[in-house]
Fold this sequence. Notes:
By secondary structure, the protein is mostly helical. The protein has helices at residues 2-50, 53-78, 86-89, 108-113, 125-128, 134-139; strands spanning 122-124, 143-145.
Amino acid sequence: MIDVRARRLAPRGAALLRALYDYAAFYGSMLVFALLCLSWSLLTLPLFALLPRRTAIAWGRYGIMAGFRLYSHWLALLGVYRLDVGALDTLRGAPPLILAPNHPSLIDAPLILARHPNLTCIMKSDLTGNLLFGPGARLARYVRKGWRFGMRPSLPITYRVRLGRRFAPCA
Length: 171
């Protein structure tokens, strides 16, 4: 009788251990993400003031890529995510294009930024004031999307698109 009962409890124990591991891995990964972003932010504060604009953009974007790449390797090592980002690597050296992540889990933007050193990101203005993301985004000269509740655009809204040319990001 003890053998049968032990067999029934074993899957429950394994499931409980797996659930505990998943919680620890998830929240530990969030802590690692926050520490990576905070350490990069603290490093970028003096760099923003000291580096010339072009050098600051290059260092800022490379640092963001390196940090997010380190984080994606961390996630894969823990088994929290199974990542197949090989298709993003084929875009390196491609002509200019627009990648528009739809943020189903808020991890897509860091995974895209982790694969290329020279991407411009359009981000909510609230994030540029955030301690974790703001200093690095300012160093990389990411574009601030300054839409606020209650603002009305002047109508009609028009866009000018030129094929074959990159647009200069806003300062």
